[in-house]
Specification:
The complex is a heterodimer of chains A (about 280) and B (about 300). In chain A, α4 runs antiparallel to α6. Chain A contains eleven helices and no strands. Chain A is globular. Helix content of chain A is about 75%, strand content about 0%. The model of chain A has no long low-confidence stretch (mean pLDDT about 90). By secondary structure, chain A is mainly α. Chain B is α/β, with parallel strands linked by helices and about 300 residues long. Chain B has eleven helices and 14 strands. In chain B, strands 6-7-8-4-9-10 form a six-stranded mixed β-sheet, sandwiched between helices. In chain B, strands 1, 2, 3 and 5 form a four-stranded antiparallel β-sheet that branches. A four-stranded antiparallel β-sheet of chain B has the order 12-13-11-14. The radius of gyration of chain B is 24 Å and the shape is elongated. The C terminus of chain B is likely disordered. The chains are: A mainly alpha (about 280), B alpha/beta (about 300). At the A-B interface, α1 and α5 of A face β6, α3 and α5 of B.
Chain lengths: ~280, ~300
């Protein structure tokens, strides 16, 4: 597995698509979640209407709200990017047929996929650290520019938030990786993953959230459970527009996400081990 | 003395989930140290067989040992270098980086990379991205990757496919060079002159079955020899020859009779023709080409396989 991990690390480091992907993630998160939000709320338009004054709303981008702001932002753009990353890591091997070149080298199938999984876990960890560091730095710069004061979350909260973000990103990465192995096609894996995220979870989930039968199904979806975990990191001010009733509690959310992580990983391994590797 | 086999299969069969029977009851034995040509028309089952031997496909039934172990096991793969079908590498990596990746996968020493690049004559282009490579360079990189482990057994699937004449000549020379040190080479091809020029023994597969096996000379011998006769007047000569031999053993093409007969009968046939007043201007024995034998061997099984209903 170590040999496979080293090979995966070299491939991943030299692949520009990965750097571009994570560049887009940081850029979108910092621009949309911080800079533009701050600029708009600092000088709100004349017809700006909100139950919460802009002067309070802008505190969303300050250090005191680091965790809720990052977790909310990452639940959409972060999830999408990690699905794409996970899909690319496996589906590309089938698209380029490099999977057969790898498998006729020495490592067995389990070792190959285990190496890939280990690398995905490491990259997801690094993304979590970098995202938290970059957003913390940005929020510090913004609060300094604003001339306001703000407190950082406690170490315990930071550790919990870090763990929650890593778990959620890992689940979405594993989902993408599983789709890549199952579909053996980059387009199908990314398309399927993003369609599920934005149409299945976000759109249909919101539209039918109050339908009893659908509500029971929603309780088992990863996005809904991630949202429940994120809700344990509230904003420091009350925003009636942003309040959503959670369908499950945070404890169940963490367990469900953990189960998804294991299921996606085991299924991908099982399929990868069982299937014949055929040509183009 | 016991013969050791680098590849030994017993009743190897592969039926795809679509019902297509790609390989049927294949018994293949490749001796250690030889260059074995696996010959067959397109769709005969060559690549499916090589995929099973490399552990990429699981056989439906039958058994195989490759380099003394079960195909696809670490024991087998440690001694096997393979290029199956298209050489597939990461397009965004250079040739050298692709080999670095493969060396890491198979735990080969990094120091092996430059020698194999030199061996396949790719050192000067090793820093360029794989996606910029010509077909010949891709094939050579595929061979280089297969050589990283310095394997005992090398499986090359259609290594000259898509190459220009110059590239084909270079690849043949490389294959001859690869057998040094007692390495076994299993080479699949549908090109007759390729196996004729490079292989010690040949197995012919058609319709998923092994239909013949032996040296090139042995295979040529299977078809027998033909006696070629140019004689006039043609009609008189034909009547006489058909009475001497059976009509199906006499064929006339462009004024030349091709007789399916033992070459030792040439003198007596000549005497009979001359005695009957037929002028014989040419009489020679023509060995059947490997191509003739190949076509004869592969025609029937391929037709049968096509007719076989899929499950």
């Amino acid at each position: 597995m170590i040999a496979s991990l080293r090979a995966e690390a070299l491939k991943s480091r030299k692949r520009w698509a990965n750097w571009i992907l994570f560049g887009i993630l940081l850029l979108a998160l910092l621009l949309l979640g911080y800079v533009i939000t701050y600029l708009v709320l600092r000088n709100p338009p004349q017809r700006f209407e909100s139950q919460v004054p802009a002067s309070v709303l802008k505190r969303e981008v300050f250090p005191e709200n680091l965790l809720p702001n990052v977790l909310t932002g990452m639940s959409t753009i972060g999830a999408a990017i990690m699905i794409i990353f996970g899909s690319l890591s496996t589906a590309s091997e089938f698209g380029w047929l490099t999977v057969q070149t790898i498998l006729v080298q020495k490592p067995g199938r389990t070792a190959v996929l285990a190496g890939k999984l280990a690398l995905l876990a490491i990259v997801t960890l690094l993304v979590t650290i970098i995202v938290l560091a970059a957003t913390a730095l940005t929020s510090y710069i913004l609060v300094s520019i604003d001339g306001s004061s703000s407190n950082w979350p406690s170490t315990t909260a930071l550790l919990k938030g870090f763990g929650a973000l890593w778990l959620e990103l890992s689940v979405w990465t594993a989902f993408g990786m599983f789709l890549g192995v199952a579909f053996r096609s980059t387009a199908a894996a990314i398309g399927g993953g993003l369609t599920y995220l934005f149409v299945g979870e976000a759109l249909l989930g919101q539209l039918f959230r109050n339908t009893d039968v659908v509500k029971e199904v929603l309780k088992f979806l990863p996005g809904v459970n991630a949202s429940a975990v994120n809700a344990t990191f509230p904003l420091t001010f009350r925003n009636p527009n942003a309040i959503t009733t959670q369908l499950v509690d945070a404890g169940r959310g963490v367990i469900t996400l953990g189960v998804y992580l294991v299921v996606f990983t085991v299924l991908a391994l099982w399929i990868f081990r069982q299937r014949d590797v055929t040509g183009a | 003395m016991t013969q050791t086999f680098a590849v030994d299969t017993h009743g190897l069969t592969k039926r795809y989930s679509t019902g297509v029977l790609a390989v049927s009851d294949l018994n293949l034995r490749v001796r250690a140290g030889e260059v074995y040509g696996f010959l067959g028309p397109n769709g005969a089952g060559k690549t499916t067989t090589l995929r099973m031997l490399s552990g990429l496909l699981r056989p439906t039934s039958g058994t195989a040992t490759v380099a003394g172990a079960v195909p696809g096991s670490s024991g087998s793969l440690a001694k096997l270098g393979a290029m199956v079908e298209t050489p597939a590498f990461y397009p965004y990596l250079s040739g050298r980086d692709n080999l670095r990746v493969m060396a890491r996968y198979c735990s080969a020493a990094k120091a092996r990379i430059e020698p194999v690049l030199e061996q396949v004559d790719l050192a000067s282009r090793a820093r360029h991205k794989f996606k910029t490579y010509s077909t010949g360079m891709k094939q050579r990189l595929g061979v280089a990757a297969a050589l990283l482990k310095d394997p005992e057994l090398l499986i090359l699937d259609e290594p000259t496919s898509g190459l220009d004449p110059q590239g084909t000549v270079e690849m043949r020379a490389l294959i001859k060079d690869l057998r040094t040190g007692g390495r076994t080479v299993l080479l699949s091809s549908h090109l007759l002159n390729e196996v004729e020029l490079t292989c010690d023994r040949v197995g012919v597969i058609a319709g998923g079955k092994l239909v013949a096996e032996g040296t090139v000379d042995e295979l040529r011998g299977r078809g027998g020899a033909a006696l070629l006769v140019r004689a006039e007047p043609i009609d008189q000569a034909r009547r006489l020859l058909e009475s001497l031999l059976k009509p199906e053993n006499v064929q006339l093409k462009e004024g030349l009779f091709s007789l399916t007969v033992e070459p030792s009968q040439a003198a007596s046939i000549n005497r009979r023709l001359v005695a009957d007043g037929v002028d014989v201007s040419e009489l020679r024995v023509s060995e059947r080409s490997l191509e003739d034998v190949f076509l004869q061997l592969t025609e029937a099984p391929t037709s049968q396989a096509r007719k076989e209903p899929s499950a």
